[in-house]
Amino acid sequence: MPITKQHRRLAATAAAIALSASALAACGSSDDGDAGQDAAGPADLTYWTWTPNMDKVVDLWNKGPGKEQQIHVTVKKQASGDTLVTKILTAHKAKKAPDLVQAEYQALPTLVSNDALADISGTAGELKGKFADGLWQQATLGTDAVYAVPQDAAPMMFLYREDLFEKYGLKVPTTWDAFADVARELKKKAPDKDLTTFSANDSGLFAGLAQQAGAKWWSTEGDTWKVGIDDAATRKVADFWGGLVAEGAIDNQPMYTPAWNKALNDGRQIAWVSAVWAPGTLTTAAPDTEGKWAMAPLPQWDDTSNTTGSWGGSSTAVTTDSTHQKAAATFAAWLNTDPKALAALAKESGVYPAASDAQLGGAFTEPPAFFANQPDFYPQAAKIAETTAPAAWGPNVNVAYATFKDAFGAAAKDKSDFGAALRKMQSATVADMRKQGFEVAE
Question: Which CATH superfamily is domain 156-309+392-436 in?
Answer without folding.
Answer: Periplasmic binding protein-like II (3.40.190.10)
